[in-house]
Write a structure and sequence with these properties.
The complex is a heterotrimer.
Chain A: E1 2-4, E2 8-10, E3 16-24, H1 26-29, E4 39-40, H2 51-70, E5 77-84, H3 90-95, E6 103-105, H4 112-125, E7 130-137, H5 139-146, E8 162-163, E9 166-173, E10 180-185, H6 200-219, E11 228-231, H7 235-248, E12 257-259, H8 260-263, H9 267-270, E13 276-277, H10 279-295, E14 301-309, H11 313-317, E15 324-332
Parallel strand pairs in A: 3-4, 5-6, 5-7, 8-13, 11-12, 11-14
Antiparallel strand pairs in A: 1-2, 2-10, 3-9, 7-9, 10-15, 14-15
Chain B: H1 2-6, H2 9-33, H3 37-53, H4 57-64, H5 66-69, H6 72-90, H7 92-120
Chain C: H1 7-17, H2 23-50, H3 55-75, H4 79-86, H5 88-91, H6 94-107, H7 113-120, H8 126-148
Classes of the chains: A alpha/beta, B mainly alpha, C mainly alpha.
Chain lengths: 333, 128, 154
């Protein structure tokens, strides 16, 4: 493991992503990626009596599915990194309390999944065998905590994003057949002063731009090196902004760039305005769709950049701006 | 039939247009200023109370009936009117009791029905 | 100049890049739904008057019925769909006030009936009562001051 450039880590023995799993909610099950998910729920409560409990159950069952799919006995898994959007990462703590694996609760807003993957790969490179990373979000519990009660008859603005109900999890191992995590570029906090909590894409795009530029400079790679550059949940508006920002600095990413928040929903049919968001967005799109594309060798080199809006309802009510963060990992066969 | 014949259709039309226009003002504020719904409601109730206190809102009520009383500005007007009535009846104490007294029915109904609704039903995800 | 040079520049750029709300369509829907809700009130008002009730009582009955309907529709998970279509059309009439009390009451049911439903009921509508009642008291006091000096305000 060595540091190259300003903030990128290059792995000498790149860790493998051995298996992934994801479970999504009813709306995501109607979306274009439905067939790639391990399990699609029909009801957002999933037999529980609150959304918070349902979210814990989603992340719990996702990790259980992951372990059984991977065939690795759970006592061989050394560490677990997980996070979500609810206060003090409560969904992950409750969901994984019976897992009996040393647990790190992490928070990076919607960038949590890649943050977990980065930390897990550093642990694996340092000598352990297997580490799990997982993240979850739930539309209803997130609306309740960050916005308005669900039954309130308000209109969503065209820039608002739809929190994905779902969880993704991946197991990172020392040895295996790939895909491999070759580089990670943890991002800096970037705040361009956006205050509109209904325009997260615009708040996070500068952070994604910063990480992306740093990654290219540190590694000496060009956008064309990757089959796909995928951001976490910038949504439609953030995606366009990022393309603009990159173009202004001389990088054209238009042809191989997409966003998980754009991919997971059908904008016209599902009326999700600016697209999906939440920890579960990048988690489920990577674990469901992208991992399978990598395994099938349809994609060979991807750069995954999960983006997060570092805000909470108190800071927002106090008129604070919304800082963004973005972490990139490069996954290659 | 008798009911339909005696019904004041002109009054209904005025009510529809005025009520609709008051809502359009709210909609423009929502779309143009990004004010949250709670702030819009506060703005309307306060505006209603001030216009009611100045006696201006009563003209609109006389003209449009429910078109002016049903929107939240009407609620504010009702509060202010009640406070003035209260002052007339019992002086300074009336300023404190009059407003709430005049709108007690609506407030009590909202609290009561709200509690009942929460007892019998569960929130569901928006199918939008 | 690049969009990220200054915060102000970026905000302007974002404003230009973000789609606006479809304001004409929204206003049209707000107009007819809002008008319709007021018209229902007018019909109730008319029936009350025909039965010989005074203006004040009739007005209270209108409020109670509309609030009841709104609470019922909120409980059936229908009001938020009306609200999505109508925006201010269902928010500004008294129905919106009722909805803003019922919605959090239902939402926080999972935190218990006392502190959940009872405590959170006014998270959205509380300010309406605070400002409405305070404004009415000020109006009352101002009226009192002007009247004691024999100046008629109205």
């Amino acid at each position: 493991m060595q540091k190259i450039g300003k903030q990128t880590i290059k792995f000498d023995n790149p860790p493998t992503i051995s298996q992934t799993a994801c479970i999504v909610g009813p709306k995501e099950s109607d979306g274009p990626l439905a067939k790639y998910f391990d399990q699609c729920l029909e009801d957002e409560f999933w037999g529980e009596d609150s959304w918070e409990k349902a979210e814990s159950k989603i992340i719990k069952e996702t990790v259980n599915t992951l372990i059984s799919k991977s065939g690795i006995p759970s006592d061989k898994i050394d560490y677990c990194f997980a996070g979500d959007l609810l206060n003090q990462c409560i969904s992950s703590s409750f969901g994984l309390r019976e897992l009996n694996i040393p647990f790190f609760g992490i928070f990076g807003a919607c960038s949590t999944f890649v943050e977990g993957m980065s930390l897990a790969s550093v642990f694996v490179e340092s000598g352990i065998e297997h580490a799990i990373c997982a993240s979850s979000s739930h539309f209803c519990s997130a609306e309740k905590q960050f916005r308005f009660p669900l039954e309130l008859g308000n209109q969503r603005t065209p820039t608002a994003q739809w929190t994905v109900t779902g969880a993704g999890a991946a197991i990172i191992s020392k040895s295996g057949t790939g895909p491999f995590i070759t580089h990670i570029t943890p991002g800096k906090i970037v705040d361009m002063g956006i205050k509109d909590a209904n325009n997260m894409g615009a708040a996070m795009a500068p952070a994604a731009f910063d990480t992306l530029m740093t990654h290219f400079k540190d590694t000496g790679r060009k956008p064309s090196y990757y089959d796909a550059i995928i951001t976490g949940d910038l949504g439609y508006i953030g995606k366009e902004i990022l393309i603009d920002l990159m173009l202004a600095d001389g990088y054209n990413i238009k042809s191989n760039y997409n966003d998980c928040g754009v991919m997971i929903f059908d904008k016209e049919k599902q009326d999700t305005h600016a697209g999906g968001s939440g920890c579960g967005c990048c988690g489920s799109v990577f674990s469901g769709y992208l991992f399978k594309q990598l395994k099938a060798k349809k994609l060979k080199r991807i750069l995954l950049i999960a983006t997060g809006a570092l805000t909470n309802s108190t800071s927002n009510q106090q008129g604070e701006s919304i800082p963004g963060i973005a972490h990139a990992i490069s996954i290659e066969l | 039939m008798e009911f339909l014949q005696s019904f004041d259709w002109m009054q209904l039309l005025k009510c529809f247009v005025v009520g609709g226009l008051i809502c359009v003002i709210g909609q423009i504020l929502i779309d143009k200023t990004k004010l949250t719904p709670a702030r819009i409601l506060v703005l309307f109730v306060t505006t209603g109370a001030i216009l009611g206190g100045l006696g201006i809102y009563q003209y609109l009520v006389d003209f449009a009936g429910a078109g002016a009383t049903v929107p939240l500005t009407g609620f504010g007007n009702n509060l202010a009117k009640g406070a003035i009535e209260g002052v007339k009846e019992s002086g300074i104490v009336g300023a404190f009791t009059g407003g709430v007294k005049a709108s007690a029915g609506g407030i009590a109904a909202a609290v009561f029905f709200g509690y009942i609704a929460s007892l019998i039903s569960k929130p569901k995800m928006k199918k939008q | 100049m690049k969009p990220l040079d200054t915060k102000k520049g970026y905000q302007d750029y974002v404003d230009k890049k973000s789609p606006n709300s479809p304001i004409l369509k929204n206003c049209f829907n707000a107009f007819w739904v809002g008008g319709l809700i007021c018209s229902i009130g007018q019909v109730i008002l008319f029936i009350c008057k025909q039965r010989g009730l005074d203006t004040q009582t009739s007005g209270t009955i209108v409020s109670i019925i509309l609030i009841g309907i709104s609470a019922f529709l909120t409980g059936l998970n229908i009001f938020n769909r009306i609200g999505k279509l109508a925006g201010a059309g269902s928010l500004i009439p008294i129905t919106g006030f009722a909805n803003s009390i019922v919605a959090p009451a239902m939402e926080y049911k999972s935190e218990g009936y006392v502190m959940g439903v009872g405590g959170k009921m006014f998270t959205v509508a509380g300010p309406v009562l605070v400002f409405g009642i305070s404004a009415s008291i000020i109006v009352g006091l101002v009226y009192l001051i002007f009247n004691s000096q024999s100046i008629t305000l109205v």
